[in-house]
Predict the structure.
Amino acid sequence: MVNFSLEGKIALVTGASYGIGFAIATGFAQAGATIVFNDIKQELVDKGLAAYKELGINAHGYVCDVTDEKAVNAFIAQIEKEIGTIDILVNNAGIIKRIPMCEMSAAEFRQVIDVDLNAPFIVSKAVIPGMIKKGHGKIINICSMMSELGRETVSAYAAAKGGLKMLTRNIASEYGEYNIQCNGIGPGYIATPQTAPLREKQPDGTPHPFDSFIIAKTPAARWGTPEDLMGPAIFLASDASNFVNGHVLYVDGGILAYIGKQPK
Ligand code: NAP
Ligand code: GCO
């Protein structure tokens, strides 16, 4: 019997008070996992805890900035002491800055790289020793369409997500012999707070041009929802994917396969 269950597993999903991380953590809980998550602000951790409770999930929430290596190491040690060794890590926390490259400061570029690429390195490095001791582990990095494609104004984000794809492959290569699988999920365009500015109605009530653009570029002709990512994440977190390693699973409604709707 193929095992998709996460019973008895401890899953850390970073930045999971809401959005994609919250949906993935909810799916993991439905599959039997114990949920641990973090956010930068206590008020968001509290909001997240309440939201999980509303779904009958007793999650463990902590304040931790994933870019702060010292704080992350203390955070992981605290989880291992209070809850147990982490079986599943989802590097979900992320930011984006939509600024034309020549108008973007180096500090702004570095900030995106710090959260979207350096932090997955920092958190994975803190979690892997426990996984080695335990004899198994699952690391899932939340990549992006921008791990494969560029577009105007997202240079830092695309560089980070392209790097995250290669960090995924490198962790898979370096730690596969310890029965640790590291894969990526590449969501398409998903309706969350991060993409809200791209979906805002125009003052005259017509759709945002980017909204129409994505609908034309997606064979499914719709934006994805965070719930669309739950099943793929459970698969990559479960024993059902123990021979899948270094792979980025694109959950994009077919965007990467499609040239885009031909103009009528
Ligand atoms: P979101 O709604 O902006 O949520 C991002 C989460 O990350 C928030 O909880 C945020 O907390 C947290 N976070 C940001 N910086 C952090 C830090 N330094 N330390 C700890 N937590 C931090 O984003 P989303 O749409 O759910 O996206 C989640 C992930 O999926 C990101 O990696 C994103 O790049 C990726 N992704 C999104 C899409 C999409 O279309 N939405 C598509 C592909 C990939 P605060 O609220 O406190 O900042
Ligand atoms: C953007 C969007 C995208 C999505 C996602 C697509 O401005 O282009 O925010 O980057 O967030 O990464 O997979």
